Amino acid sequence: MVIAVAEFKISYYQYLDAESNIVTPLPFNHTQLIKRYKTMVLTRVFDLKAIALQRTGQLGTYPSSLGQEAVSTGIGYALKPEDVFSTFYRDYAAQMMRGVTMEEILLYWSGSERGNDYQNPSAKEDLPACVPIGSQYLHAAGVATAFKLRKQPRAALVTCGDGATSQGDFYETLNVAGAWQLPLVMVVENNQWAISVPRAHQSHAQTLAQKGIAGGVDCEQVDGNDIIAVESRIALALKKARENKGPTLTYRLSDHTTADDASRYRDKKEMERAWKEEPISRLKNYLISQNSWSEEEEKSWLNHCSEKVEASVKTYLNSTPEPMENMFKFHYDKPYHVS
Description:
about 350 residues, two-stranded antiparallel sheet, 8 strands
């Protein structure tokens, strides 16, 4: 006798398809969409400038967010001020929306600890960017545990790339989040690559979203090039987390970092397909088709973004070098001296 003791499904959410067609009724009006579009464009202008700084020796190794602006922007709009954001690296739109300045992001990637010392009070409780793969998931689980113990209606949100889903830290977080029903939202920004390792070689799972099933975590897949779908689904997951209804797991056009050359391992046709699906053109084409945006407005906004980014870059480049002893400054609660 064979009895099915459990069955699962992974739902996929999309509002705006790759051809800029509405496939699900929109939860936002055009004014709200323009705000989100502007945020994505500003993020891309900043990102391109940061790459240029690295290529000219004015910035350290830098991981681009090119093509992932919709995920980061959606996260930024979905989070509430009282929530805590635990990012990996690439979520510049969300960081800036949370109060982290462009100068601080540039300082971080130049190797300065001042880049983690956020001056804006609205960003003070967010965690700094985490370069070790996957460890930010454990940090976020700790934050979510604190919220639960304090009975606070707050949520923690953590991000990672698809490569981190092969790490033990990721699975341990899923397990404890499900077992303790933590107010935690876990977002996997699946760009199909873990540096040079393709998605197909990382896991034989049909989706990355289903990895949370064993931990008893709600799982779903969202079109990461659709800002509307990303924000809508993450906002619902955060609401559920704040209401103590458990955790949720939601499932690149650039090189992995500026130290990488993706052309050595990534197929040219794959890149061409990715560019046809990227988030900024997708939303721009829709807004233009609805007479809510124009090429004149596009040019004006790009000029504004360039001026804003250049001003931040000037501040960054004019910052005074840190004393060498600062590399030890944050290691201990009190200065440690060896006699």
